[in-house]
């Protein structure tokens, strides 16, 4: 099975009629991410089951240019409950689909595979689910990020809610047994016939020019680039530029109509971990900010590309309605108005990628104004301790897992007050916080989700403030 032959098959099964150029674009981006053989000289390489599975995952996003990124992310998802709960003892979603394509029995056990992209305020999240039937029994397998460590332990699938989505909405592609039967049959026939490759090579002409361009930017055979978006007004190169800083090289991409400012760094050849690379880039941006006296915020991204890739612009979500219904009065409580201002300030900081200010602003929403008496526990800490169990029920499990791991057994109220509030508000020797250090930024991102939930709970419960446009009366307790 050649990549060109597989493109014809998947276009017939999964794409819109008459949009073959979009299918070719998907395969081009899959090659760019190293998920399919790259270059004219490797066009005749026969695909493995894993490569065929990557191509299938490349049809999950609606935009062809996202095929490589989404396939890479989805393919790395791991089964809840570990390999023992997965398809044929496989660890990742990619391996599970490859196992289905490799076996008539595994293929026949499939009821459905569903792949979901959930749009969230801070970026997309990816999930997958398989329903299989073995020995007359039907079971569900969910696939989540490998960062959700507790969900990957044996037996975790028994208490997992396989039907819950973690966002208000999600776009989903569902593939049934017949799809996998047809694809397995076509792959088997192709391998049996072993015919020579026939192609006009046109699809590789642009790619060859791009390979030369990537080589000039530092891409090598073993490269593994991390690509991160930047929100900034500092002076930036007009063209993609390879830059050296602190003994390391990285590529700066300019903002365009489709892409944001971004930086790509080769983790493999620069011999850096993702955390060390993020810290290095934060230091770089801090120096640029100082020189230009303008802001520069390092955003999210991904890693794993064999070449540097610009990060597409992600416009903030907004809502419009043809029937504007607003019937709210201005609250008379001055303290509530101040706390609402802090709450909005926290959301603004989140959008700008300023997590330290996000933590501090949300904390000020529920910080008690009156001082505790000498010898008594801090009133804010007491409130956090009292409500946390109820608030945590609204948080995603993976958020709580990261939060619990970061606090390392410390009491929740002390961790939120001392290691989050004090660390971000003061240059404290006891509770230091380095705003450029990647591990510290990741810790604060986890804490910010928890502190945001505490802030919203405080306003809803302490002031009984309605969260609807059309009434001052609260809809829930």
How many β-strand stretches?
Answer: 10
Query: Helix/strand-derived class?
Result: alpha+beta
Report strand order across the widest sheet: 1-4-3-2-5
- Cα separation of the termini: 60 Å
Helix and strand topology:
Layout: H1 3-14, H2 20-32, H3 49-57, H4 67-75, E1 78-79, H5 93-101, H6 104-109, E2 110-120, E3 123-134, E4 137-144, E5 170-176, H7 177-193, H8 202-216, E6 225-232, E7 241-245, E8 248-253, E9 261-266, H9 274-292, E10 296-305, H10 334-352, H11 355-366, H12 379-392, H13 397-407, H14 412-425, H15 438-462
Describe the protein's architecture and organization.
With 477 residues, this protein is α+β, with helices and mostly antiparallel strands. It has three domains: 3-202, no CATH class; 223-305; 334-462. The chain has helices at 3-14, 20-32, 49-57, 67-75, 93-101, 104-109, 177-193, 202-216, 274-292, 334-352, 355-366, 379-392, 397-407, 412-425, 438-462; strands at residues 78-79, 110-120, 123-134, 137-144, 170-176, 225-232, 241-245, 248-253, 261-266, 296-305. The strands form two sheets. It has a five-stranded antiparallel β-sheet. Strands 7-8-9-6-10 form a five-stranded antiparallel β-sheet, with helices on one face.
């Amino acid at each position: 099975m050649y990549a060109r032959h597989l493109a014809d098959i998947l276009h017939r099964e999964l794409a819109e009629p008459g949009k073959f150029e979009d299918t070719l674009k998907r395969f081009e981006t899959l090659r760019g991410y190293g998920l399919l053989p790259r270059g004219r000289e490797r066009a005749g390489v026969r695909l493995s089951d894993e490569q065929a599975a990557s191509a299938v995952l490349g049809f999950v996003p609606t935009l062809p240019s996202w095929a490589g990124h989404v396939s890479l992310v989805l393919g790395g998802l791991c089964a809840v409950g570990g390999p023992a709960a997965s398809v044929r003892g496989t660890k990742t979603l990619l391996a599970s689909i490859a196992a289905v394509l490799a076996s008539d029995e595994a293929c026949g056990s499939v009821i459905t595979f569903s792949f979901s992209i959930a749009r969230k305020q801070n970026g997309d999240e990816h999930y997958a689910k398989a329903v299989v039937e073995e020995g007359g029994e039907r079971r569900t397998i969910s696939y989540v990020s490998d960062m959700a460590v507790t969900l990957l332990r044996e037996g975790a699938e028994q208490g997992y809610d396989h039907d819950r989505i973690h966002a208000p909405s999600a776009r989903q592609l569902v593939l049934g047994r017949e799809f996998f039967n047809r694809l397995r049959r076509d792959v088997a026939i192709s391998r049996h016939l072993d015919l020579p490759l026939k192609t006009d090579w046109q699809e590789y002409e642009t790619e060859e020019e791009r390979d030369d361009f990537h080589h000039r930017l530092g891409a090598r055979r073993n490269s593994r680039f991390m690509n991160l978006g930047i929100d900034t007004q500092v002076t930036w190169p007009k063209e993609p530029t390879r830059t050296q800083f602190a003994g390391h090289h990285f590529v700066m991409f300019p903002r365009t109509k489709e892409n944001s400012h971004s930086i790509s760094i080769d983790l493999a050849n620069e011999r850096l971990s993702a955390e060390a690379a993020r810290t290095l880039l934060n230091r770089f941006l801090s120096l640029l900010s100082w020189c230009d006296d303008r802001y520069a915020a390092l955003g999210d991204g991904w890693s794993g590309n064999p070449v540097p890739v610009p990060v597409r612009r992600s416009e903030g979500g907004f809502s419009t309605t043809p029937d504007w219904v607003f019937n709210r009065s201005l609250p008379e409580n001055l303290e509530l108005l101040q706390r609402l201002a802090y709450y909005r300030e926290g959301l603004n900081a989140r959008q700008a990628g300023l997590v330290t200010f996000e933590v501090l602003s949300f904390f000020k929403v529920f910080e008690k104004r009156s001082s505790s008496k000498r010898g008594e526990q801090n009133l804010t800490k007491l409130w956090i301790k009292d409500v946390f169990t109820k608030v945590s029920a609204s948080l995603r499990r993976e958020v709580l897992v990261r939060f619990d791991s970061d606090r390392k057994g410390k009491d929740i109220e002390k961790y939120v007050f001392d290691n989050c509030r004090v660390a971000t508000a003061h240059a404290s020797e006891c509770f230091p916080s380095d705003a450029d250090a990647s591990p510290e930024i990741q810790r604060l991102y986890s804490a910010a989700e928890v502190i945001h939930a505490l802030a919203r709970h405080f306003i809803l419960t302490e002031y009984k403030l309605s969260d609807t446009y059309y009434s001052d009366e609260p809809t829930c307790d």
